[in-house]
Amino acid sequence: MLIILCLLLSCLDVTRQQVSPRVPTAKVPCAPAPACEPRPRRDAGGRGGVYEHLGGAPRRRRLYCATKYHLQIHLNGKIDGTLEKNSVFSILEITAVNVGVVAIKGLFSGRYLAMNKRGRLYASVTYNPECEFVERIHELGYNTYASRAYKTLPNTAGTKRKRSGERLWYVSINGKGRPRRGFKTRRTQKSSLFLPRVLDSKDHEMVRLFHTSSNIFPPFAFYAIIFNCYRT
After folding, report:
1. Residues 106, 123 contacting (CB under 8 angstroms)
2. Scanning 18, 28, 74, 171, which has its CA 20 to 30 A from the CA of 137?
3. Closest among 108, 101, 106, 123 to 55, alpha carbons compared
4. Which tens digit of pLDDT belongs to each residue from 124-181?
């Protein structure tokens, strides 16, 4: 038995020596992935485009005020509200310019909603700091839009007036469809609450017609065509 055991141990030693040790394989570095090229940006005129100077994708909406008026931005710079459901001047593009800050542009007028230092709303031809509004979501899905540039500062100690806190100036349309001055507005007032409404199929058709025909017809002739389409 002892002889047999010695023979078995010797066989095991021979087999271990014959087995070649594993050589660790060198890891081949993976080829670096090609750098992602920046996505080409389009002008905001096309559907789904972006503003070159703002950098956000616009949302096309109608802003329906709790006073039952739609916010309008006219060609002549006038801001008001309309009870008409399908007014072309109430089709707006809302674009994020910063976290919680938006710019509102009339699609058919090409002007930006703005508020000056006196709290008056107007339509600006060019984008400027007065065109920036702080967007906040409130009860029942309504939004408020407060001027980022102007607000009522709190009274300092020692003044004759009653001490008051900081107050924001909101976009507001009263019960007669007229804009209210910013320093007279409050967040809880119905005139300061707006419901963003998605465009319907007829609105999308008008937008398509606007982009395809704006370079063919003169401006006034084109808007006459638009109004006739809405009446039919």
Report:
1. yes
2. 74
3. 101
4. 999 999 999 999 998 778 999 999 999 998 876 555 666 667 899 999 999 999 999 9
Rounded CA Rg of the chain = 33
Q: Identify which of 80, 185, 71, 77 has the alpha carbon closest to the alpha carbon of residue 122.
A: 77
Q: Give the residues of the chain that fall short of pLDDT 50.
A: 14-16, 18-21, 23, 33-53, 220-221, 224-225, 228, 231-232
Is 3.40.50.150 the CATH classification of the domain at 59-154+165-199? no
Query: Are 92 and 102 in contact, with CB atoms under 8 Å apart?
Result: no
Rounded to whole angstroms, how far apart are CA atoms 142 and 111?
24
Who contacts 91 (Cβ-Cβ below 8 Å, separation ≥6)? 60, 62, 106, 107, 108, 199, 203, 206, 207
Q: Identify the pLDDT of residue 8.
A: 53
Q: How many CA atoms lie within 13 A of 161 on its CB side?
A: 7
The predicted pLDDT at position 91 comes to: 95
**Alpha carbon distance 47, 44 (integer Å):** 7
119, burial (CB in 10 Å: exposed 0-12, middle 13-18, buried 19+): buried
